[in-house]
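ingest -> fold -> write
write: protein_1
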Amino acid sequence: MRSSTAICLAACWLSLTLAGNAAALPNDSVICWPLEHSDLVGGHATTVLGQPVVRPTPHGPALFFNGTTDGLLVPVNPLAGWSQFTVEVLFQPAEGGLAEQRFVHIQDPAGWRVMIETRLDGKGGWWLDTFLGNGRNIKQPLIDPRRVHPTNRWYWVALTYDGRRMTHFINGEPELAANVSFGPMGPGQISLGVRQNKVYWLKGEIREIRFTPRALPAAELQRLGEN
């Protein structure tokens, strides 16, 4: 596993140094965004929707989103110019939220979108839904309602794209994959806790997001044990 405080701190420094020039990152680097403030994420001033609050967690401070009005807009796209990428998110989905929750939405002006979402069954379970596409002729979701996980627990989820194939993972374990022709993306923005058109709100906490300019193998992904 790649998680270490030293690596994360170095990555956060690098993300600040290369802000606006993510395409310049070497492919063994990572942009790390701990979500410890609502008004500043990864060195970027945010647009705050509602009142997401910082809470202590076993993994460090995290932002809690209430499922109805809380979200963030971050005016940058770390994936811009990347032909390959990995997006990793440490989060805890809470029970009692909407059935569909788009908690990471990355988009550029050409309409290329990266989505990481949950689906809740209303019985204490959730499954992962990811999407790559341009909203027009390219639309590739990955979703399987049979792959249910308990709510109110922490997870690392990941979406990788190697220039041909997208795969999503939970705690380092691959779940689904498909071939798709995607991007590369241009400059854009990210919404956290909600889709960019302010629907499908997250109820839960996000601690950290990581962006890597290559498709990480399962052995290098962040993961948690039983929690």
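write: protein_2
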Amino acid sequence: MTSQHRDSGSEGRRRLSAGVRVAAVVAAAAALLGFSAIWVDAGERHAAGRWRLVFVDHFTHGLDLRKWGRYSGQPGGDPGGWWMPSHVRVSNGVLRLQSYRDRRHRGRWASGGLSSARALKQTYGKYDVRFRIDAGYGVAGIILLWPVRDWPPEIDFAENGGTTTARDSMTATLHHGEENHQIQRRVRADFTRWHRIGVEWTPGKLVYTLDGRTWATVESRHVPDEPMELDIQTQTGTCGDRDAPCPNASTPALVEMEVDWVKAYAYQTR
């Protein structure tokens, strides 16, 4: 269930994550208790110099096509979705991934997504994204790490599939193995408001962060050890799919994921 689409040489891909479609879910006990109870300041856990800033974008001067490629076309495994480069916009220093009915797509819903493959591909790293997303049934918002080579693996560190009218939670899912096994965690917050969401990816370990604090940790031999890129996307689902539905009468005419900034760090062992 993978796909690749290009517009004028830009790189983009991906169907709605199977993490939202829920195959094997390992629930975090901490999530049941509320993530605030287990927060640990991420900055205090690492010795100075462990992370080196290698990529940053505040979108101050529009969309830098040296850094980002925009998605275009049909997502694999999602016949109801469609990506168009024109649905990726930057205004007032904010990246906007827009989902709405587009007359250029016969009045059907279309969305926006982009990939860092032009400028950022690395093994291990720390990623931090300040974002928010409008409520909107049937419109997913996902921030993820995608393999440079074949899928899987995949690390979704922020995903909401639009299965309710709210944005009151995000899942983080590690996809691995040919049969797409999954290790998933869930955190609750109001994601229509601005938050920093991130992941620290090191050998055998994923640390998921929200507003600079740890909310879940996964230690597994299935954590990837190969180059991956950073992707950010919105996506409409398919009518009749309970786990990835299409927009309905309650969905606003325009649903945006807004991104204030993106930062990525390289992992340093010394």
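write: annotation protein_2
The domain at 4-267 is CATH 2.60.120.200 (Jelly Rolls).
The chain has one domain: 4-267.
pipeline exit 0
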